[in-house]
Design brief:
- By secondary structure, this protein is α+β, with helices and mostly antiparallel strands.
- Helices cover 36% and strands 27% of the residues.
- The protein is built from six helices and seven strands; from the N terminus they run βααββααβαβαββ.
- Strands 1-2-3-4-5-7-6 form a seven-stranded mixed sheet, with helices on both faces.
- β2 and β3 form a beta hairpin.
- The two termini are 32 Å apart.
Amino acid sequence: MTAITARPFRPEDRAAVRRICHRVGYMGEPASWYWPHVDSFADVWTAYYTDHEPESLFVAVDGNAVVGYLSGCIDSRRAPDPAQALSRSVLRHALFLRRGTASFLLRGIRDSLREGPAPSGTLEDPRWPSHLHINLLAEARGHGAGAALMEAWFARLREAGSPGCHLTTMLENRPAVAFFERMGFERHGAPHLLPGMRTPTGGRHHLQFMVRAV
């Protein structure tokens, strides 16, 4: 592996970003075991950033290969929250008729009926108006790729005059939480149960907000 560097997103990176999103979409592991449909998953988690705010998207590259990305949004009011993006994808890809995604969606509805509405994936607070998502292939971890992407993002925030940013992660994803804390993020508020989400053995997952001032 050569030295991994971060650079701004280019249109020709779009397919790689979408592949990586699904390949590491479950706590750094493949999302295929619970969400087998690649295009709909990538639409939910990457389409806004690649298609509407590419200037806030950065990729980690090993030579010429894209091995990770950070997708950011300066003003979170501009981007659909995950629930909105999911609703659009459900209609576009007929996900209630697809094996795998249908069971996830139905379980999410049952959870929400029992436990109340799903928590929003966007934090509405003027102190942290921006947000980000970051994903790295396994072979890119531990080589400074995540830190390089974060530094590119922090520079973008300063350039745009944003006072701070937030993110969400699953509380059970301990390596991710530890990485974000090393990058200066702090946990914000109590974790919330995630409707529909389960571990491979049936356990529950929790959504955790994290915040950082610029």
